[in-house]
Structures are given as structure tokens and as C-alpha cells.
Amino acid sequence: MNKRYDVIIVGAGCAGLLAAKAAAENGLEVALLEKKQDPAKLVRACGQTLVSMNEPLFGDFCIFNPRDKRIGFPGAGFSFKYEGPYRNLYAQHLFAPSGHRIEIGDVKQQMAKGDAGKIGLVIDKESFFRGLLKDLKTCHVDIFAGTPVEKVTPVEGGVRAESGSKAFEARYLIGADGVNSRVAESMGFNKERTYYCNMIALVWDMSGIELPEPGVMYTIQAFYKGMGVMLFTFPQAVDGVYTNNVVTVDPRVNLEEAMQYVMSKPFAAPWFRKAKKIKARSAICNCYSAITEVSRDGVLLAGDAGSTQELENTGAMMSGWRAGQAISIAVQQDKFGLPQSGIEKYVDWWKSIYGPKHGETYMKMYTTPYLMPSEEEVDYVFGLMQGPLRACWNPYTSPMGEAMRKIIPTIQRERPELMAKMARGRQPLTEIFKEIASVSKPVS
Amino acid sequence: MAREYDIIVVGAGPAGLCAARAAAENGMRVAILEKKPDPAKLTRACAQTLISMNESFFGDICIFNPDNNRISFPHTGFSVTYSGPHKNLYAQHAYTPGGHLIEIGNVREQRMKGDLGRVGLILDKETLFRGMLEEARACGVDIISGVNVDAVIPTEDSVTAGDGGKTFKGRYLIAADGVNSKTAEILGFNKDRQYYCNMYSIAWDMTGMKLPEPDVVYTIQGFHEGCGVMLFALAEAKDDLWMLIMLTVDPRANLNKAAEAFMKKPFCAEWFRNTKSVGVRSAVCNCWSPIVEPFRNNVLVVGDAASTQEIENTAAMISGWKAGKAAAASIQEERLGIEITGVNDYVNWWKQIYTPLKSEIYMKIYAPPYFLTSDKDMDYVLGPN
To answer: What is the ipTM of this complex?
Structure first.
């Protein structure tokens, strides 16, 4: 008979690692199951950033403390060591297809504020993984690498997770296996969710990129063969390496070609003159509406596993930590026969902080090509916007919405036929993404 | 010229050390000012226990996790290191003056339950302090010992504290200077409080004590020369070390003599026959009604400094942690130019969790001598009938 754990955590990403740390610090017997052979290795496309450093996010702040090399969340009251390299981001510059620039944040002003001016922090995710994994070993978490969980079933007094011929049992399980969560699928959480579309990303780690300004995230909205794509280019935490990330929700896009196309735009081409590809990573994400009830039969979902796409690293850390504490409370209350409140507390936090609406707000970022369906139309609309806008890198409070509202009367007057297309923005997401949803299907 | 910090913490006890670390982990520059030259040394009487290990306490559950050397609080969501010795307490045996025993908890049954059956945990507080000091230092807290804060000057956006010599300035000050908090007194927090009485105690470290059950805390109620007193006898965390505490709220009681007399009572004389005192500490505590508004003039009052007497080591840690992270959140909000709400989290928690009613319940432990006014009355009411 295998060891029976207090809690199994599926997935050693941001959410799973923090959940394991919280549970283990409370003395729980923890098994952490990770699909990858080397849990410290980054294999999927990821921006490796912490967003919203100058604003609250999910009811908390993310504070980076370079002196002691810690990342802290004072609302939840936890922190962890981060000893890897980092880089501050002070602004996001959004380019229309023709090169008109909207400054989200005045980079000089933000830099002058020092630490308080940074909107995001670029970290090295492998360093983060290594640091947390080291912490977990010192508090006796059993880590099983190369163990993808395919099936989760409730059993008498607990939960069972299966991976190939191996099986693990525990009183509780935390599903922290990301946006295409097998745990959520296996436990039937996805049945009540609305499927919007997929999100497809290709990241090239590149050297030799020459961006106009340091500390800025460059974003280019474009169309490739008539399909909307977005390119994000910004420095990584490691010196001399840049992230070049092309994202679309249209499954028909050839991302490699689209990347080359956007990079060759006249205003952007000089940035990439000496650029060299070091490595490529990709990701396909199922975008569902967020789960409201993230607990069922002893299983709790944390991080992206319960959300649309995505809670960002920051939100995943917060929800992982809270899920780990919630299970610790539940185990302790079970032991003493006290009334149960641990899981309820987590579900309440999830519902009040990460409501289904958040997921919809997030997805709005990707609706632009469906409301302004050509490069000319996006150029026209973005061209009306006067920057710099408020410095913000929080997908839920972006100043773009407000800037858009200001120019609506002009569009109404000058281009009523475009206004009619843009009015679709008020429709439900399923309606906006209807056409691409018809050619997409969730990956498993 | 004052040394400048984000947060000044006065007092390096369980509350102050937790407050300092919670703030420092979030990048705040923190100084702890501690009166004692050696902050790890225990100089006042203290039972060195964590109470309520089998029930919720102050909205949290205290979990001891010896495999990882940690004491944790899952509701509040933090843990502290503890690598010293420990002993479990499974029951309290209360004796009337004449020797009638009231068992609070069946020790055999509780022991059978193992860790789940313990009602309290005995720790070595100096080891706890050393571990917490180390954790605080590791995240950049300046621990400044030998500073007996006797001046606290708040301004609109800062607080300056000092001892006549050195001065320290912070955006916020966290008063964690215990039940007789000078900081609370200086800032006028005590004006709205009701004064109940003082509590006097002497604690002796002893060898050679032979308690009937080694993992039970024994109490004996009674009178000495007309003054109500109470004896506590229990193990200490280190092997063959025991603690005897005499307590009273009557300033006229002679606790030394009362201890001598109680130790000779026929039903317990055997316990103490071969004891030898190897250390002694005392304490006098002001017992006030708790502070209702624990935040004013950029000062947060935490732990015993804000409560009657006392919220125990356990709750001191919880309230310290809550205050430290609340102050850190407020400073972050201020830096980013958004509305400051962080401190409210602490204030709301304090009001919700620590109502005046609870402090009155606590003080009732010390009330029996005032309605059962002789050994005879106590034996009759608390006795076998």
C-alpha cells in the first residue's frame, strides 16, 4: 500500500509550488506531482513576468524586495525567496499596425519614480522554480517528477490521482495543473464552463534585439493574412536575452510566419536587425469561462486551472498559497472534529476576488481584430488615441478602455460603418469569438 | 539626527518579532527597539507555553510541526521557526485549597490521542526568541537592543521614538512592548481604558519536582494570610526542569511566603520535597480593559500592549504578524499613491476577534477569592459535593 498523504498537489508551477509550501509549513504530508521530468525547466511559452507591480491585483500587492531577494504579498501575508536576476518594466508601448505608438505609461516619468514607478517585473522563471523546489525539499515535500496525472477520482474519505500505472491517495487534492487542467477536466469542472476559444502562443528567446528604450514592453497589434496577431517584445531578466512572443486566438495562423511578418514591419525592422533566435517555446491554452465553485469532493483548483486565461504568475502564487492554507485548516479541523471552514474560506476568496467577470475582462484584450477587422481600421482607431496613458500593467484595469470611450464620438462622426462593427464589443464574448470558436476546439 | 526606517517596532517579544518580519519580508526597512541588552534572554516571569493547541484560538489554529522545526498559523498564513525542545500538556488539574482535585481533561484519554490530545505545548522561550531573531535578521531587520523607549512623538506622517540618547523615525510605529506598554501610555491609549487591578507573579525554575503526572499543569487555589493566591506547577521544555509560579492580584500578598506555605500542603508536599530553585523571575502587570481602537497617530498597538492580560504567546504572534503586514500594505499603497486601507485590516481584525468581553472572561480566572472569600468556602463550593 502506498503512503497516504494529507494532500496531493498536481502541478509544480507557481500555484502548485506555493500551495505545497503553505501545506508543508503547516506540517501536512504533501505529495507534489509534476508532469515534467525536470520540474525546474521552463518548457511552455511564458512571459516570465509579474504584472501590476504599481497597482493592487486580486486584492493584494506584489512587492519585490531586492535587498533580501524576496517577493512578498502583504495582504495574504506571505513571501518567498527569489534569488534570480530581474528587470523592471516601466511602461508598455502599444503599436498600431502602421507604427503609430500609444504610450501606456510615460517611461521617463515612471523611471524617475524609481521602484514605485515599475509596472511589472521580469523574472527568470527557472530561478524561481529552483528556489521554491529547494524550499520544499527542506520542509519534506515528496516531489514526483515525470508524473503526469491523467485521472482524479473521489474515493472513500479522500481523493485518488492516477499517473500511468502509479496511483496516489490523499485526503485532499489541489489541482494546480494550469490552464488546460486535467484535474478540472477529470473531475467534471469543465462541464458548466463556456468555451470561448484557444489562445496560441509562440515565444522565441532572442539575443541582439535593439529596442528604442530599456524597461518598456513593446506590443504590436497586426494582421497576418487577414488574421489578428499580437507581438510582445521585451527584455528578459537574464542580460542580453529578449522575449519575442507572438499570440493569436485564431488557430489558422502560422505563428512562425506571423512572427517574421510583424518583425519585418518598417518601424520594427531596425529593432531586429541583429536579432538571433536562441530557443523556441510554444503554448496552446483552452480559454473557458472561469470556474465559480472551485471545490468539489475534496478537490480544490488553484491558479490557471480554475480561471480563463490567465491569472498571471502573480495571481497563481496568491491562489496557490491560499489553497495550501485552506487545506491545512481543513486537515486540522478534521483532526479535532471542529466545524469545517478552511475550504469555504478559499472558495469565498476565489469568488469575491476572481469572479467570472475577470476572465471576460481579460479576454477583451484579444477582441480588437474582431471589432476592427483590418490593419487600416486599427490604424485609424489607435491613431485617434492621445498618449501617454496612465502607467498600468494590470489586464483588468487597463486604461485602454477609458481612452477608447473618449474617441467614440469621433469615430461615430467620421466612420459610422466602423462604429457599427465596434459595437459588437458589447456582445457576449462567445458572440465576438463565434467565428474562430467554430474552427477551434479545446486541447487535452 | 534620527535614524530613518519605514517601520519602528518597539519590543522584541513574540508580537514584535512577528510584526518586524512580516513587514521586512515585504521589503520594508524595519528597526526593532528592545529594552533588554540581550533580546533572547528571558527576564520576566512567563510560563513559556502555547495554549489552546486542540481548539481554535483568536480565529486561528496553532500547529506545531517539529519535523520542519516550525510553529504555524494556517488562517493567518505564516509560520515561525522553533528548533528547541518541547513537551506536551494533556490536561489541567485544579486543586482546591484542601486538596480536592478537579480534572480539566482526562489525561490518560488525551495522551492516547497523541499530538491531537495535547491542550498546550511547553517551549523554551529563549530558543524561540533566538530562532525568531535569526529569521528577522535574515530579512534585514535592524535589531537594536538596550533601547528603553521613553519618548514617542507622532507627526502627521511619521513617528519618532527614542530613549533620550538615540532616536528612530518611521512612517509607522508598532507598539509591541507588552502588557505595561510605555508606548501606549505615552500616546494616551490608556485614557479610555478601564483599570481593573495589577497581577503579580513570581516564577521559579526548579529541579527535582515530582508531579503526579509529568504532562499536566497543576494549579492550587487558596489563601495566604488572607490574600487570594494561585500556584501553578508544570514541566519546562528542558529535561528535569520544572516551573513553579505564584500569582495574585492582591498587592498585599507575599508571594515568596505563599509559595513556601503552599508547597507544604499535605496533598502536594511530596511533589516538592526534593526541589531546588535554579532561577527566579517576577512580573507585575497592569490589567486594563483592552484598547478598542488599536491605531492612532501612525501607531499600531499589538499583542499584550493592547490587551488586558494577556493574549498569550500564541495570540501575540498572530496579532504581530497581522499588524506587520498591514503596515507594509499601507506603505506600499502610499508609495503608489493609492488610497491607504492596509491598516484597517488589522484594526477590523482586532475589533472582531478581541472584544472586551473576552478580556473580562480572562480576568474571571482571578475572581474566585473575591466571592469565595476563604479556603473553607472554596473547598465547599469546588469540592466533591
So the answer is: 0.82
Considering all CA atoms of chain A, what is the largest pairwise distance in Å, rounded to the nearest integer? 74
Are A296 and A189 in contact by the 8 Å Cβ rule? The answer is yes
- Give me the residue from B27, B68, B325 closest to A139, CB to CB: B68
Interface of A with B in 337-396 (CB under 8 A): 338, 342, 345
Q: Provide the CB-side half-sphere exposure for A57 (13 A, CA).
A: 29
Tell me how far the alpha carbon of residue A176 is from its chain's centroid.
Answer: 13
- Percent helix, percent strand, percent coil in chain A, to nearest 5: 35, 30, 35
Residue B311's nearest CA partner among B287, B328, B327, B293 is B287
pLDDT at B310: 67
Query: How far does CA A50 lie from the centroid of its chain?
Result: 9
- Residues A306, A347: Cα–Cα separation, whole Å: 11
Q: pLDDT per residue over A306-329, tens digit each?
A: 998 777 899 999 999 999 999 999
Determine whether the interchain pair B77/A56 forms a contact, defined as Cβ–Cβ distance below 8 Å.
Answer: no
B38/A196 Cα distance (integer angstroms): 63
If phi > 0 it is left, if psi is from -120 to 50 it is alpha, else beta; for residue A69 that is left
Chain B residues with CB inside 8 Å of A138's CB? 68
User: Taking the mean position of all CA atoms in its chain, how far away is CA A241?
Assistant: 21
Residue B376 is predicted with a pLDDT of: 93
Q: Residue range B268-275: average pLDDT?
A: 97
Q: Residue B316 and residue B58: Cα distance in Å, rounded?
A: 10
Q: Which distant-in-sequence residues (6+ apart) come within 8 Å of A69 by Cβ?
A: A81, A82, A83
Would you call B131 helix, strand, or coil by DSSP? helix
Q: How far, in Å, CA of A127 to CA of B178, rounded?
A: 41
DSSP letter for each residue of A2-57: PPEEEEEEE--SHHHHHHHHHHHHTT--EEEE-SSSSTTS--S----EE--TTS-B
Q: Which of residues 5-34 of A touch B (CB under 8 A)?
A: 22, 24-27
Q: Decide if A75 contacts B332 (C-beta within 8 A).
A: no
DSSP secondary-structure letter at B250?
-
Contact B152, B33 (CB under 8 A): no
pTM score of the predicted model: 0.90
- Tell which residue, A236, A262, A204, A295, has the closest CA to residue A48: A236
CB A58 within 8 Å of CB A183 = no
The shortest C-alpha distance from A94 to chain B (Å) reads 23
Secondary structure letter of residue A158 according to DSSP: E
pLDDT, position A333: 92
Nearest by CB to A77, which of B78, B138, B140?
A: B78
The whole-number pLDDT of residue B385 equals: 57
Phi, psi at residue B53, to the nearest 5°? Answer: -75, -15
Phi (first) and psi of residue A283, to 5 degrees = -155, 140
Whether residues A78 and B345 touch (CB distance < 8 A) is answered with no
Nearest to B54 by CA among A342, A328, A340, A336: A336
Cα A107 from Cα A11, distance rounded (Å):
37
**Interatomic CA distance for residues A343 and A322, integer angstroms:** 10
Within 10 Å of residue A155's Cβ, how many Cβ atoms?
12
- Using left for φ > 0, alpha for ψ between -120 and 50, and beta otherwise, residue B208 falls in left
The region, left, alpha or beta by phi > 0 then psi within -120 to 50, assigned to residue A387 is: beta
Low-confidence stretches of chain A (pLDDT < 50) are none
Alpha-carbon dihedral sign for residues B41, B46, B47, B49:
negative
Residue from the list A27, A79, A116 with its beta carbon closest to the beta carbon of B26:
A79
Name the average pLDDT for chain A: 94
Bigger pLDDT: A245 or B290?
A245
Hey, which residues does B372 pair with through a beta bridge? none
Residue A368, all three cell numbers = 480588437
